[in-house]
Amino acid sequence: MSQEVPPLCEDDLDPDPLAQFQRWFAEAAALPLAEAAALATASADARPSARMVLVKGWDATGFVFYSNYESRKGGELTANPHAALLFYWQPLGRQVRIEGSVQPIAAQESDGYFAARPRASQISAAASAQSRVVADRQELDDRVGELERALGDEPVLRPPWWGGYRLDPINFEFWQHRQDRLHDRIRYLRSASGWHRERLQP
Which of 143, 181, 190, 197 is catalytic? Predict the structure, then answer.
């Protein structure tokens, strides 16, 4: 980001953090993979891990992403159902941090999303034991080939070990770059009475 932008003032932000996220996302939507976010989880003994995921939807109930439930992230979310998402839109000099609890979504919702995926992606999800050790690439390709032959022209059904998660936010942080490094950071915290907004020092 080369051009300075005006300071981010509280009065410029929507009192609803989801509405503010939607506003910023609309401005980032033309960027490649604007829906990509880093997902951080932690094991039962608090050892963290992070990876990139595609966030496939969001509304008042939370932010949805999909995975193999038996993957490393799936195991960590079972043991410790809390996570953080980080969206970073470098050309805009903006990032959004979101933290909250995570639960699997309804099976019907996962079925609907899985059915809408390209067939090759469906087969990959069904063939891969995500995060497990595999001998080599050929073994993966062989599994895909075997599944394709077994299915023929039949539809690929969602495996029971694959589906969506929903992160229910308890806080948001909107961060905007400043060239003098005095970055703007506005945090929203959820309480019983609604969302409370505050500024953090950079």
Answer: 181
